[in-house]
Each structure stands twice: as C-alpha cells, then as structure tokens.
Amino acid sequence: MRSPLAPEWLTVPDDTAAVDHNIFSSGVARDDQEVTIQGVSVSQLVERYGSPLWVLDENDFRARARAYADEFNAAFGPLCGEVDVYYASKALLTVQVAQWVRDEGLCIDTASGGEMAVAMRAGLEPVKIGLHGNNKSDDELHLAISNRIGRIVVDSLAELDRVHHMAQELGITANVMLRLTPGVDASTHHHIATAHEDQKFGLSLTPAPHADTSVAYQAVHKAAASDHIKLVGLHSHIGSQIFDSQGFETAATRMLEFIALLAEEDISINELDIGGGYGIAYTEADDPAGPAVIAKNLAEHISQEITRLDIACPRISIEPGRSIAGPAGLTIYTVGTTKTVWVEHEGEHYPRRYVAVDGGMSDNPRPVLYDADYTAVLANRISAAEPAFSRVVGKHCESGDIVVNAVYLPADTDDGDLVVVPATGAYGHAMSSNYNMLPRPAIVAIKDGHAREIIRRETTEDLFAREVEL
Fold it and tell me: Which residues are known catalytic residues?
C-alpha cells in the first residue's frame, strides 16, 4: 500500500528485486538472488574489498564517453567541424579514470592544480587539458601557462590581467577562453545553477548600470590586444543536473549573438564551449535525454541561429561529467540498525522504516547539500516480504545524514543485508570527507567481468598521516 508520507513521484514497486536500467549502469543485473555488476556479485565484492564500497562499471563509463564524442561529432560535424569533448573531472577523478578518458579520445577539464596534476600524471597531453576556476592561485596559473595547456578558462578581468603578466614574464603565449555569464536561470537547484547574474562565475554580458559596455566585451578586447594571450574562444556553462533543453538553447543564442557583434568589429571567435550539466536519472522520476538527442537538438538550434545571424559556426566544445561518471557508479552498503517510527500527517500517524547503513554523508554529501534524491535496492537476496516505506540513513552524528530519503524496501531488510544505491559515480568520491573520522571507502572498477581496486580503502593510520606531532 502506498504511504501518504511518500513523495508524489514514488510508486510502490511490483517487484522490490528489480533493477531499473534507466538508473543503473548497463552492466548491472540480478541473478537468482544477488545484484551483479558484469557478473560479479555484490557479496563477492564486499567479501573481498569491504563495505561500504564504491563500484565503477568501467565498460559503462567508457561507452558513455565514446557516445558523447560520437554523437556530437555526428550532429555538429557537417555544420561546425570536429567537436571537442572535455570530461568534467570534478565529477570523478583518479589517475585511472583520467586514463580511461584519454583512451577514449576525450580532453579533460580541471578546476584546480590538483586535478591538473592528476590529468598530467595520467598521460594526457597538455593541449588536451583545460583549467577552470573563479579564483585560481598563482601556482595554478603558473602550472597551466608553463605547461602550455590547451585553455585557461578566465573568469574575471583581474584574472585576465594576471594571466597576461605571468605569460609575459615566462615569455609564453597563454591559451585563454573567456567564461561569460549569459544571464540564463537554469532549471536546477540554485547551488548548481551557474549562468544567472547573481553568482560568482563568469564575465557578465550585461553592462553594469551607467556603463557603456559589459565586462565580457571589455575582456574580449583586452585579450585580443594582448601579445601574450591567444584568445581560443568563449565559454558558457548554465549549471548541472539539467533536463530542460531551453536553457542550453537560450545560452547558445546569447553567446552567438555576442560572437556576431564581435565579428562586426573584425574580432573572430573560433570556438564556443557550450558547457555541460546534462542530467541523469537518480530515481524513477527522472527521464534524461541521451547524447544523441541532446546533440541533435543543440545542433539544429545552433544551425538556425548562425543562419539568422549570418555568421560562420565556431568550433563547438562540451563538458559532460556527471552524465558520464554518474550512472557508471554505485555504492554498496551494509545494513546495521533498523527501526520504525510513526509520523503524523494530516491528523493521522503513518510508519516510516529507518534503515541505517555503514556509510552516509561522508561518502555522499549530495542529499544534505542539495536535497538530492536517490533510490536503493536490497542487493544480496530476493525477499518475498511486502514493500515498506523506508528512509536509508547513514551512521553520522547528524539528523540530516540521509542516503535515500524515500524508497520502498522489503519489510524484512535488516542487519547484515546489503543495499545498493545506484548513480553515485559522480560527486561521491569527489566530495567525500572523513567526517566523524570515518575512513573513506575503496573504489573498485569492473571491466569485462574482472574487478580490481583502483583506490584503496583508507585506514585509521591514514587519518593520522597529517598529524605533525606524530
């Protein structure tokens, strides 16, 4: 029976053992009892590598990376030439993951000196690396300029001056792309919307009160006039976890209109990065478009706009991250304490079952940061018990330590069972912490049915590693 406490989108499952392939990676299935990833069962993985555990379906990750390259090149090739796909490494980055990106022919987008160092350690050519960030340090800029990376995405007039002076001192021409704010209010959580005016990123296309020109216009002219800056192109990113194509299309229109304006002044913009942020399915309520649909719709829109504006199509680049890494990952947890509480709703009381697991906000802070929804399945066995309206929670000393806010799990889910939370490949490991001094989980990658550890589990000794007096 459906719980009145449940959100409207959540249905009572006919089969609590089912795995939804709109959410899980392509390699996930269920045998007679257990959830498997490319034939490797969850209990085998926990027995070998421990719990909680991040698992990456490497085949799925690679296929998604290839799909973005293939579909965007198919859609845009006849119109604008080859498309550059920059994997947004903030979603998930290890040396091995960066090597998968390199092997599949993608470039890599970084947002710090550490991410740049990982990309370089993985063997990516500097020309295939980009650097983002609203407040890059001198060390980060020096690393980027001295290694002649493909593009430094400049975020402010002050940073543009710093890049010019540093490149001048080094006797190098720095490759610069300017991040502009097109004034688009994306349909997503306000903490991950990045193209409206009142936020920290980018150079606004809108002139300030009493100003004749925008800071974006000023930045283009300043970059074009510098002997030590090569203006690679312009960049726009409207946010993350976006399903509505309207925001991407509006941003593209405003950027192309600006490019047309600059063309009238004989300033040629050869590349336009239209960002990323394509949404993925975390629950049954989500129905994301695939790369083929996204590419086709954007190519059709940009084709219409360049015809209207009578300009040549710039080279296009994109930055998918979550939509490559997210669905390729899942987290295995072990159940500990369970309890049922009675919650008052419209004058009546209804049960909610709390299922506590051995991880939580330290391995996935997105629910507490963004009210992000996930789903879960009982993974180590098939149960005949009725679905019980449940909340999966972590072990941290926070009432907001919620892993899955609302899900129907078998009523007999209990101590020692394994539950799997899908779509955790993006921003779990990347945003993890040692809150409550919990060691972080290992990451296991599975390729062609073979599992291997690519990031080992932290130990208590690791927690002491930075203690100076020890």
Answer: 397
Structure confidence by residue, pLDDT tens digits, 291-339: 999 999 999 999 999 999 999 999 999 999 999 999 999 999 999 999 9
3-state secondary structure the chain: CCCCCCCCCCCCCCCCCCCCCCCCCCCEEECCCCEEECCEEHHHHHHHHCCCEEEEEHHHHHHHHHHHHHHHHHHHHHHHCCCEEEEECCCCCCHHHHHHHHHCCCEEEECCHHHHHHHHHCCCCHHHEEECCCCCCHHHHHHHHHCCCCEEEECCHHHHHHHHHHHHHHCCCEEEEEEEECCCCCCCCHHHECCCCCCCCCEECCCCCCCCCCHHHHHHHHHHHCCCEEEEEEECCCECCECCHHHHHHHHHHHHHHHHHHHCCCCCCCEEECCCCECCCCCCCCCCCCHHHHHHHHHHHHHHHHHHHCCCCCEEEECCCHHHHCCCEEEEEEEEEEEEEEEEECCEEEEEEEEEECCCCCCCCHHHHHCCCCCCEECCCCCCCCEEEEEEECCCCCCCCEEEEEEEEECCCCCCCEEEEECCCCCCCCCCCCHHHCCCCEEEEEECCEEEEEECCCCHHHHHCCCCCC
- The pLDDT of residue 185 is above 70: no
Residues 201 and 218 in one domain: yes
Residue 296 shares a structural domain with residue 438: no
Least confident range from 106-115, 273-282, 358-367: namely 273-282
Rounded to whole angstroms, the Cα distance separating 139 from 162 reads 12
pLDDT > 90: percent of the chain: 90
- Residues with Cβ within 8 Å of residue 303, at least 6 apart in sequence: 79, 313
Same-domain pairing of 111 and 250? yes
pLDDT of residue 197: 62
How many domains does the chain divide into? 2
Task: Answer with the residue of higher pLDDT: 195 or 363.
Answer: 363
Residue 7's beta-bridge partner residues? Answer: none
38: in domain: yes
Residue range of the domain that includes 331: 28-58+327-464
